[in-house]
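stage 2 :: seqdesign
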């Protein structure tokens, strides 16, 4: 819409590390079940003719946004307001770096319950130091005049007045512009809007201070089944072969459990592990292996130089429910 008014566009996409499709691609490398972020971006570039730069903000995002959001979390653990402010500050830096005059976004008034109400849009604009310089073409006619409109760079009459949760008008607009291949709209593009991920992150924050949490910790929240045995002990159980392979990258410093005679999960455990914990973790591992209906299963375990093996009965579902995060 903006390019059609003779404006040169430079695209930017921010990688927070919480893009669902990218993680699924990494876990399922052999199956290649989804496109990489770069492939998704290339598709957009091909359709729009706009070159898009990917900026990795994952390290900063963790400490500055996710773990200590000034404006809090949404219904899951999504710090949407802080996220938008952080991204737009980065966009401002990129804008100044390349000599651009203003920022455009695809935001729609009232579409997101936390970050796209009128007052929140204004707050985000102010906190990102971009007052008057964020143009939202899809809802522009419902929002105050921006500097590019006041200066006559942009014709407001050629912009839209879309609002609300429905995407019907966006679909019609895409059709008009000849854009037919695009991801389906859904909160599922970001892990932080996922309720399961949110529960795991809340559990992590309940047992570790934000300053003790690193990138590896939040990556592991995306994978497997999670169980909390005590304040000190957390268990992650791979759900399939792809997740087992992924978890193998994170065995260093953690306890590793596997069924000896049956195909089953790779189980990781972290914390101060007692003999009773070894028994419980082995039982959980046995519960998810192909020998789960056997009366007893041999489970091997290792931690640094320590190795062992234990024969256990698979844990029952009521016991699992007590530990499940």
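stage 2 :: out
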């Amino acid at each position: 819409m903006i390019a059609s008014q003779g404006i040169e566009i430079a695209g930017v996409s921010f990688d927070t590390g919480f893009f669902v499709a990218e993680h699924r691609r990494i876990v399922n490398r052999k199956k290649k079940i989804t496109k990489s972020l770069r492939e998704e971006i290339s598709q957009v570039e091909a359709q729009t003719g706009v070159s898009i730069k990917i900026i990795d903000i994952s390290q900063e995002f963790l400490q500055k946004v996710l773990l200590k959001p000034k404006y809090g979390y949404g219904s899951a653990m999504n710090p949407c307001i802080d996220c938008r402010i952080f991204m737009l500050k980065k966009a401002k830096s990129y804008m100044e770096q390349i000599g651009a005059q203003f920022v455009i976004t695809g935001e729609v008034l009232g579409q997101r319950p936390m970050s796209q109400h009128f007052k929140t849009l204004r707050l985000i604009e102010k906190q990102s130091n971009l007052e008057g310089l964020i143009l939202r073409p899809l809802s522009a006619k419902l929002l105050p005049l921006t500097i590019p409109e006041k200066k006559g760079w942009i014709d407001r009459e050629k912009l839209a007045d879309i609002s609300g949760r429905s995407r019907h008008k966006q679909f019609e607009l895409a059709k008009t512009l000849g854009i037919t291949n695009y991801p389906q709209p859904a909160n599922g593009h970001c892990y932080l809007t996922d309720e399961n991920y949110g529960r795991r992150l809340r559990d992590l924050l309940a047992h570790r201070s934000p300053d003790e949490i690193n990138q590896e910790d939040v990556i592991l929240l995306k994978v497997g089944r999670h169980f909390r045995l005590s304040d000190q002990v957390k268990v992650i159980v791979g759900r399939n072969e792809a997740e087992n392979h992924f978890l193998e990258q994170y065995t260093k410093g953690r306890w590793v459990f596997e069924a000896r005679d049956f195909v089953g999960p790779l189980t990781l455990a972290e914390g101060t592990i007692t003999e009773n914990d070894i028994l419980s973790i082995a039982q959980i591992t046995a519960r998810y292996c192909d020998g789960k209906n056997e009366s007893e299963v041999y489970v091997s375990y290792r931690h640094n130089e320590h190795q062992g093996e234990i024969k256990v009965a698979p844990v029952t579902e009521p016991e699992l429910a007590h530990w499940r995060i």
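stage 3 :: structure notes
- The CA atoms of residues 95 and 101 lie 7 Å apart.
- Residues 80-98 form the longest helix (19 residues).
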